[in-house]
Amino acid sequence: MIRISMSLPKKLLSDFDNVLKDRNYQSRSKGIRDALKDYIVRYQWMNAMEGDRVGVITVIYDHYYTGVMEDLAEVQHEYREQINASMHVHMTKEYCMEVIVVNGSVNTIRELTEKMMRLKGVDHVRLTSTASGESLDSD
Ligand code: NI
Prior knowledge:
42% of the residues lie in helices and 27% in strands. With 139 residues, the chain is of the alpha+beta class.
């Protein structure tokens, strides 16, 4: 085992600790290891997809964060050919959720997903897609 130290926002750590408590974890280190594995598996799953897909990207962001709305709009305009529709939900006073329906090459959709993930002010991005490898024009 290698020992690391890291800085985290207070709220993130307390949210994480609450999850660990709910799940009856005895050790925070084990919780972090499991969370990291989950992150890696999700990334690998996303990378294993091929071809054309229909999917949904869910984005949660803090609309008080300066520039985040403009950045998200810019990225989405860049990928307008893959975006069929989007819905904006004012989730809480602070947070907005955008649900974006995408359709096209998985490589491009992945690129879009990761660009949004890297934006400052964006808290959460998740791509879900049809699980099977069926082609879109099968019926
Ligand atoms: Ni909003």
